């Protein structure tokens, strides 16, 4: 997290003060490194410090902060878009504020008990465990962590371990959830909301304002996920939202296919209907595939491959974020309304995957996933080593 904040600060300085395109691009690359470091470290940190019964809700707070960041970015962009010629510098430079918060915050927080014990700081780890649990009697959880760390130390090559058969369930699920998270079409809608809303008949300013509206809905709906994830479980949210998002994508696609000719030819009522269904779509994503794409991989890898496995999952997320971001405008121009049917097909695939292959991890200790989840699952149990 400290390294992430340093990358952010240097990247912000280069991007906002860019004298040429090369400085701007290099600054953005450093910001990308910061995003990668942060997305790797924070969910794992939250999963390792959270008690099992609160792990889902606490981890979704990470996604909540992302949605708040998106909203703030849209608001900043909205107000700086009219400031010439330095509005874009103000927008990029504003990212230095959360980077400073992250830097000072990372200096204040403690290491996780798991990380301390894994590095043979057992007494410090136990003291930290007592501190974050708020009780003195932590022997059962402490002994479980010690046992998991002792087993993890025996694994000399975590990446080779990840390639073994028994590591396949969390690896496959972790990477596919990240892929599916992007192929819901959410980044296409959130990144290019101004283009989308302008296409259906809104003006330039109204398009940016609409992006602010969807950002607000994204934030509010994430609170729904925080409330329900440890009550209804992960699978229910994934499946419910898949149905909700599928209906929204199909309705939007049908309206646009039926009535959208040249840019802005939808009637005002139809344009409003499209915006409403986009908002309902964002709601479903915000309490399901958005946060759970980060939560489930962070809690399903065993300690010996947790860091490496989650790193691969995050890399997969960043890769497909890049693919969608680069391809969406060309796809929108070429496929027009068909792009919504394209994402609808992916939602069907991911819904079926969640139904058949994603196990429930609600309330299960992070270091007990193997015995309580994988060995009990109808399909993944065949990948567990017999007698292990």
Write the topology of this structure:
Elements: H1 2-16, H2 21-49, H3 55-80, H4 87-93, H5 96-108, H6 113-118, H7 122-133, H8 139-153, H9 158-162, H10 168-183, H11 186-191, H12 193-199, H13 204-228, H14 234-259, H15 268-286, H16 289-300, H17 306-335, H18 338-357, H19 369-372
Helix pairs in contact: 1-2, 1-4, 1-5, 2-3, 2-16, 2-17, 3-4, 3-13, 3-16, 10-16, 10-17, 10-18, 12-13, 13-15, 14-15, 14-18, 16-17
GO molecular function, one term: symporter activity
Membrane topology: Multi-pass membrane protein
Subcellular location: Membrane
Low-confidence stretches: none
- Total domains: 1
CATH fold assignment: Growth Hormone, Chain: A
Shape: globular
| Portion in helices | over 70%
Please state the CA-atom Rg, rounded to the nearest Å. Answer: 22 Å
Strand content: under 5%
CATH superfamily: MFS general substrate transporter like domains
What is the CATH architecture term?
Answer: Up-down Bundle
H/E element string?
A: HHHHHHHHHHHHHHHHHHH
What is the CATH class designation? Answer: Mainly Alpha
Mean pLDDT: 87
Please report the total strand number as a whole number: 0
Major sheet details: none
Structural category is: mainly alpha
- End-to-end distance: 35 Å
The total of helices stands at: 19
Family: Belongs to the major facilitator superfamily. Sugar transporter (TC 2.A.1.1) family.
Protein name: Major facilitator superfamily (MFS) profile domain-containing protein
Pfam families: Sugar_tr
Domain Major facilitator superfamily (MFS) profile: 1-362
